[in-house]
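dumping these here so i dont lose them again. two proteins, back to back, each one seq then structure tokens. dont judge the mess
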Amino acid sequence: MNWITNYVRPRINSIFSRRETPENLWQKCDDCGTMLFHRELSENLNVCTNCGHHMGITPRERFLALFDGGVFSQVTVPEPVSDPLSFRDQKKYPDRMKAAQKMTGEPEAMLVATGEIGRTPIVAAAQDFSFMGGSMGMYVGNAIIAAAEEAVRLKRPLILFSAAGGARMQEGILSLMQMPRTTVAVQMLKEADLPYIVVLTHPTTGGVTASYAMLGDVQIAEPNALICFAGPRVIEQTIREKLPEGFQRAEYLLDHGMLDRVTPRTELRDELITITRMLLGMPPAVKGDLPKPDMAEPAPAEPETPAKE
């Protein structure tokens, strides 16, 4: 047995070999620059534990934190025509769609689901800004209509989380037509006397702000979210004036009567439970309330042993 080959060399290699560290273990905060451990950041719902900056979060991650036990059922959304205008810029529209689907793992920019929050049945819809900027195309219009129809059918409130850069340019006028379509969908909820709650996240801009995102019975926003139709840079270049500090941010809109609440993401679930139950005329939710366990059938009684005389 060659002890140098079998023992010494492997031992030296194990000491000096380079250990690969995964690149996704740490993430840098966009605002304060703090390096955040991925598990700690995920547990805090992608909110910086140092400065409270709200980073992007996918609809599926949001729903896992929102619904009781992370349990929800996805609502099927009708598929629109894939490329109605045969649009092409630097890439073909279908190629951009495939790239976005591969990056996000989702078929489109909106997810619709049903479930319970605080034992309160709801329908929820959320936009994914990482999917082509959350742009509003025909699929997003179909998704909001499907969410409204499901809410009316089940007689449940609808909670919508908006995050979009506006209409989807690759669908042209068909994208802009989703503004009146989604407005009609919101009207369906109002006619059915069902609450419609909107949570505006960063950013919510363009045609989305000009339609369903600003029609809620209650308007809530996450801290420092940009909420506008035209962005501040466009406005500054148009009017040739310096805009106020924090213009078009959530706190500014709250001060000027455009919003009802600005709520941190970590407190949003409890806030939505309280508001939803209030609008439905239900009693306040009980903290730590658990489903009543199924009553198991009593075990058969054992035969009595005759007493000895």
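---- next one ----
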Amino acid sequence: MAGVITAMGSLVWVTMATSKPLVQVSCGYAHTLALTDEGFIYSWGANSYGQLGTGNKSNQAVPTLINMDKERLVEVAACHTSHTSAAKTQSGQVLMWGQCRGQAVAYPHLTHFTNTDDVFACFATPAVTWHLLSVDGDDYLTVAQSLKREFDSPEISDLKFLVDGKCIHVHKALLKIRCEHFRALLNETDEETIEIHQFSYLVYRAFLEYLYTDTINLPPEDAIGLLDLATYYRESRLKRLCQETIKRGITEENAITLLSAAVKYEARDLEEFCFKFCVNHLTAVTQTQAFADMDHDLLKNFISKASRYGAFKN
């Protein structure tokens, strides 16, 4: 019970000391990691294997900022059975430190993994597997891998989209299976080339790639355009993925831009998230150019809602 109380007290300390809301907390065997909404990690607890990521093996009774010369972090991970720590960057890179196959790694190191689960499956002691790992040879491709490889490949495609003067090669059957819009469109036309004018090449290519891979890989500002497309095509899952991408990439500089987009495309959950971020970083957000250029009606509604939220009490 004392350990739980200490951890809760430390979380309060992080929030009060940094004035930054926490978005994720992970607990290891005897250490804790906390991620702020700006992508910084604080750690405290036991450090016999360097699991705090401070560059040494000294235990820390109070939360300590881990200094990383990396891009914004969006995920932290620890396991209650191990002294291992992991984190994931906005671009998908995975870092690890602590007890790694019996060795002590006192500072975060870059790995070849694409998710933090694999860190604990391959390097933690004892190993912990949260999802299935493929043990097939390199010459075997799953269905998902095969589809991904054939995206935008002209070899066996039977349809191409022309966007901003650039071609994207696809397969009619897959598009019909994955998207109601294309099922209706391709049942009415035998064209081998379709021109697209209302969306950019970057956005439309990301949309078609999503149909092949079920994932999106865009920075938050470009994900706004994909959110517009998802709304237009009534792709609810894609719309949710866009919102999650935008949430992970929000900063003080782009918060108002993302809030405006959420309002425009009626993404209520994203709108509330962006609004709370703006209120929690009100001073910095109001000094940005995006705030100065804010639409009058949106500005009026923002000030009114922020006032009700208690943002101007002090």
